[in-house]
Amino acid sequence: MLQPLTAKELEYIADSMSNEDLLMKQCAAFVSTSSNQALKQLHTQMIHTHQQHYQTLMSSIQQHQSIAPTQPQ
């Protein structure tokens, strides 16, 4: 059975999502400025990987939303 996430865990997930978002933006910036096709393809793949990580983190928050306490503890 799922346990509610602690404030510390939620903070960690939020930080991780922020990091994944930054990595996606950095890869996208590289893709838009690079002329090397192989590196552009690699960074495009990395964008997709970071998007998957972001979605996984978002899903973990959404799964716990239904069991989260409505009042601070």
Structure description:
This is Spore coat protein. 77% of the residues lie in helices and 0% in strands. The protein is mainly alpha-helical. The protein has one domain. Helix 1 (7-33) runs antiparallel to helix 2 (37-65). The relative contact order is 0.17.
Topology:
Elements: H1 7-33, H2 37-65
Helix pairs in contact: 1-2
Q: Give the N-terminus to C-terminus distance in angstroms.
A: 20 Å
Total number of domains: 1
Number of strands: 0
Rg is: 16 Å
Outline: elongated
Structural class by secondary-structure content: mainly alpha
Largest sheet, if any?
none
Q: What is the percent of helical residues?
A: over 70%
Arithmetic mean of pLDDT: 91
Low-confidence segments, ≥5 residues, pLDDT <50?
none
Order of helices and strands: HH
Q: Give the helix tally.
A: 2
Give the oligomer, counting copies of the same chain as homo and different chains as hetero. single chain
How big a fraction of the residues is strand? under 5%
Question: Any key phrases for this structure?
Answer:
Spore coat protein; mainly alpha
Short description:
The protein is 77% helix and 0% strand. The protein is mainly α and 73 residues long. Helix 1 runs antiparallel to helix 2.
